[in-house]
Task: inverse folding
């Protein structure tokens, strides 16, 4: 591929950094951002690191009208010995391109994207918080920018990366959550965009999430769009079950996201000699197993929380109390190991981390 | 509701208007646009007509990440006696609010929106093209603008209206189109966002549409997401069938858009004493009726084309040639009547048009 010269325009008006232990998610941004443009005849070109600031778009820009857009989410972590680590970033760029394919967006060069991300984070190194549990959240995304109301793929795009320091997801340590099993609204269906990380998949869940929150749930567990029977995933997390000593997770069926934490947990458990069965899982069968006292642990997995133990599942008026609302042993061990690897405290035997230097 | 003072900032650098008979769809915009802001504590406020031009947004603006957005599409028409007419605009604002409800966006005041739209078009009167078949396309839309990466409804929005003169959809008169019946990709499913006019519904169709175009089809006919059996709608059109002398259209099942042209055609046919049956329609049953020689006319309906006769449906390698690729009598009559009402040539007995003056 062509080589791309990265231009860096440094921000001379640096912002104050927030207090590290209480940063709300996704509202504080660093001093710089990354932008690369796409044009049909030029391909991706003009990669730049510039001061963080507003972007200017034509009001007819396609992103505002037809939602042709994809994004990613990953984190950079500070180690105790002062290094900055990324966690499997190449998997995020691979998934970005998979999402782009579904949305008819031209692929980016994954190696180049990673190389430039490293340079951006190097420049923003002081923004990576150091307090335990904190990290620098990384949001790569692509938006379609043609000023054109004709429905169809854009001929111009912007690929951007913005960075946001985030506090601990569980400030007081891991905390089991209450989840509503959604049987009215649908997130995704076979043949749709469920396996892509694209904007429309998220806002389509707001109504269900608001209803669930009114009844004291933290989020919803989506069921399949066809039979409203098979377990898919939580808002921004995949889901795992320990039932009668065995670990299960819904299979990648085309309508759920291929989570990188999910993938890592399967690989980690396998490395411990614990098999994980990926299969179609019916909610009624889960309930039966629950009634038989066999559901031992349930946990969500995703970049935000890494592991989020589920203490309660509410399904059609039935309450499934999991492990007496306590953190399961396996959940805790997975959390400690993965966050340990991410922050350099546990040896990275699976070669997952990438150092910025 | 509160009254809102509309502020008008006139554009002093007016653009040249394009040649009326060959304006490509959605790429030319008028001199002004409309913007109204929303903030939780203020509600919708500060309505303004300003010179058309770029808008500036934080790169973390929610519209770029989670797709919380809705839009509408309607047209203003020039009559031969120099008036400018809107076609059932109150139905578009009603639908905009329905879409907003699904996307957890606060509703706008429909009367106010119509009143301000009229003022905008009055100011842009010279942009409404006069050549037969042309019109001024109107695009109201709402975007979520909080700079916040936390998944959830925004607390700020922009409601905007942009205007674009458009040439004739069928420059040489009505022209039957070839349509691919899509049985792999899915547009929408019960419990999803199919009934809302929201960005993500459109880009999710690009892959299917590109595949269909490669094989010579103009667009796809979507089937239901559950059984891939029941007929839903075409890209931006609802669909009607005349079978054995009777008129049918898929029922509003929650996953298709409640088209205003669809509604108008049903009302118009009823006023002519022709009943329309809205029901679940299976594609295999359509094919059976086709083989029995009973499918007389098929046409799409929407703001863009009004009536778009379908000359051929391609379904799983089977070709259904409709009415020998010719325009059906009913299709033509509906087209002539509705476009006639829209342009003041046919008496508006159903009270559908709204004059700008
Ligand atoms: C819908 C959805 N499912 C699952 C995940 C978990 O994926 P990962 O482990 O790659 O963060 C995410 C998000 O990040 C998500 O948005
Ligand atoms: C998905 C979809 N279906 C149907 C229609 C037809 O609706 P209307 O007649 O209101 O234009 C449109 C668009 O305009 C549409 O986008």
Result:
């Amino acid at each position: 591929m062509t080589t791309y010269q990265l231009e860096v325009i440094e921000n001379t008006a640096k912002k104050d950094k927030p207090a590290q232990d209480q940063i709300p998610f996704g509202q504080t941004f660093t001093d710089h951002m990354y932008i690369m443009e796409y044009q049909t005849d030029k391909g991706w070109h003009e990669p730049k690191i510039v001061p963080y600031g507003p972007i200017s778009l034509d009001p007819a820009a396609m992103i505002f009208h037809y939602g042709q857009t994809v994004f990613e989410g990953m984190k950079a972590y500070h180690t105790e010995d002062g290094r900055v680590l990324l966690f499997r970033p190449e998997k995020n760029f691979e998934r970005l391109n998979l999402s782009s394919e579904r949305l008819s967006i031209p692929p980016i060069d994954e190696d180049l994207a990673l190389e430039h991300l490293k340079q951006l984070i190097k420049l923003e190194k002081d923004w990576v918080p150091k307090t335990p549990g904190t990290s620098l959240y990384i949001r790569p995304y692509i938006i379609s920018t043609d000023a054109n109301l004709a429905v169809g793929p854009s001929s111009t795009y912007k690929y951007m990366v913005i960075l946001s320091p985030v506090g601990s997801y569980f400030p007081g340590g891991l905390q089991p959550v209450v989840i509503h099993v959604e049987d009215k609204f649908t997130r995704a269906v076979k043949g749709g965009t469920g396996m892509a990380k694209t904007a429309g998949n998220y806002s389509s869940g707001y109504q269900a999430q608001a209803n669930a929150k009114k009844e004291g749930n933290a989020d919803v567990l989506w069921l399949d769009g066809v039979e409203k029977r098979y377990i898919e995933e939580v808002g921004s997390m995949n889901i795992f079950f320990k039932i009668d000593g065995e670990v299960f997770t819904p299979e990648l069926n085309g309508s759920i996201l291929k989570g990188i934490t999910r993938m890592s947990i399967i690989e980690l458990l396998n490395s411990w000699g614990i098999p994980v069965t990926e299969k179609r899982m019916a909610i009624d069968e889960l309930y039966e197993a629950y009634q038989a006292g066999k559901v031992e642990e349930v946990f969500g997995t995703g970049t935000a929380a890494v592991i989020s133990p589920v203490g309660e599942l509410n399904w059609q008026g039935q309450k499934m109390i999991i492990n007496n609302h306590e953190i399961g042993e396996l959940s805790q061990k997975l959390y400690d190991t993965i966050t340990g690897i991410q922050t350099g405290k546990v040896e990275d035997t699976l070669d997952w981390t990438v150092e910025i230097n």
